[in-house]
Write a structure and sequence with these properties.
Elements: E1 3-7, H1 11-23, E2 27-31, H2 34-43, E3 48-52, H3 60-67, E4 75-80, H4 85-93, E5 98-101, H5 106-136, H6 144-156, E6 163-166, H7 173-182, E7 191-195, H8 204-209, E8 210-211, E9 223-224, H9 226-229, E10 234-238, H10 245-257, E11 259-261, E12 268-270, E13 274-279, H11 283-288, H12 294-300, E14 303-306, H13 317-332, E15 338-339, H14 341-348, H15 355-369, E16 373-374, H16 376-382
Parallel strand pairs: 1-2, 1-3, 3-4, 4-5, 6-13, 6-14, 7-10, 10-13, 15-16
Antiparallel strand pairs: 8-9, 11-12
Helix pairs in contact: 2-3, 13-15, 14-16
């Protein structure tokens, strides 16, 4: 049952609103002034607050402003008999969902309350999903190698320095990029990832910089590129070593001038983007062979973060296995399987050429095909080593 707090110095108004809303099956609480209302919000979880503006001790706008600084922020609907457009605009700017004049129209009041509660539900669902995503993207491990990566991330993330993440396939380079973004000042802005190896060379420029309508045969309408989509946030160029030389030249220009031009267009578009790049190639070798621009390398590699292969952090395998067992159980809607200590030790002996990605696949296979408690026999049968 949604909990609604009514803050109003007029007892008649509080009683009327309470009667209407309790009939709609809402749980109602009352406060006779702004100070009492703020105290209740600090001590209780409310889904919605109906707040008068003109009140003794503390007016509604002040209550709204102070609640904006709290961790718990219920939706606010402001109500007033003395409201003006300026007041409504001010309340909205400070985070109010809506503004209703007194005496409130019953139908509008109930509709606004329902809409505000729907928004609150969406806000809470988003928080839960972000928490789940954050947990899924958590960097698991306590080895010296992975702790060094974590320490570098902590130092680099708050800056706007460009980072080149290196390491074999499957080590978690994109995970490192996500962590840098999440711990940066750009966290609330977009994180846009582009796999340069997965896009044909003739399309990579359109993908990164967008195109104008008619720029080429299949360009039926104007399209924003990844640089524009990531404006204010982070652009992750995965497998940058596979990018064509012509695209490299344009990326270099974008990094130098903070501007891009769409394919088929002359207009320059300003972009504010932090670029993170990753590769499984030796870029210095690629430079020597003429496959990668040295000037671009120096632009993207202000900070280098080498991600260790799994065979160099075998002590992290028990923690990774436990994480994957939990994730797979949730995905399949089953109980989390246990794994014998001897089986874990066996997994630690493997070379893991596919790294963490391969380990995750093997654990999923063992969950599906193995026994209730995953044993060394299951490892021998299904791990393919």
């Amino acid at each position: 049952m949604p909990k609604i707090l009514i803050i109003d110095d007029e007892k008649v108004i509080r009683s009327t609103l309470k009667e209407i809303l309790e009939y709609e099956k809402y749980e109602i609480f009352e406060a006779q002034d702004g100070e009492k209302g703020l105290e209740m919000i600090q001590n209780e979880e409310f889904d919605l607050v109906l707040c008068d503006i003109k009140m003794p001790k503390m007016d509604g706008i002040e209550v709204l402003t102070k609640v904006g600084a709290l961790q718990k922020q219920p939706q606010f609907i402001m109500i007033s008999a003395h409201g003006t457009i300026e007041t409504a605009v001010e309340a909205t700017k400070k985070g109010a969902f809506d503004f209703i004049p007194k005496p409130p129209d019953l139908n509008r009041l109930l509709l606004t309350v329902r809409n505000a509660l729907d928004k609150e539900n969406l806000v809470q669902e988003t928080k839960v999903l972000k928490k789940k995503l954050s947990k899924k993207l958590d960097m698991v491990g306590e080895s010296e190698a992975i702790n060094q990566v974590k320490e570098t991330i902590e130092k680099v993330a708050p800056t706007d320095a460009r980072v080149l993440i290196t390491g074999p396939n499957g080590t978690g380079k994109e995970l490192v990029a996500h962590w840098i973004h999440q711990k940066s000042n750009r966290e609330a802005a977009p994180f846009i990832a582009v796999n340069c190896a997965a896009i044909p060379s003739e399309l990579i420029e359109s993908e990164l910089f967008g195109h104008e309508k008619g720029a080429f045969t299949s360009a039926m309408k104007q399209r924003q590129g990844k640089f524009e989509q990531a404006h204010g946030g982070t652009l992750f160029l995965d497998e940058i070593g596979d990018m064509s030389l012509s695209a490299q030249a344009k990326v270099l220009r974008a990094l130098q001038e903070h501007k891009v031009s769409r394919v088929g267009g002359d207009k320059e578009i300003k972009v504010d983007v932090r670029v993170l790049a990753a590769t499984n190639k030796d870029l210095k070798k690629e430079i020597a062979e003429g496959n990668f621009r040295e000037d671009l390398y120096h632009r993207v590699s202000v900070i280098l973060i080498p991600v260790p292969p799994l065979k160099e952090r075998a002590e992290d395998i028990p923690l990774l296995v436990d994480k994957f067992l939990g994730e797979i159980a949730i995905e399949y809607g089953t109980a989390k399987k246990e794994i014998e200590a001897a089986a874990i030790k066996k997994l630690q002996e493997f070379p893991w050429t596919g790294n963490i990605r391969e380990l995750r696949n093997v654990i999923e296979r063992l969950v599906i095909l193995g026994g209730k408690n995953i044993s060394t026999d299951d490892i021998k049968k299904y791990a393919n080593y």
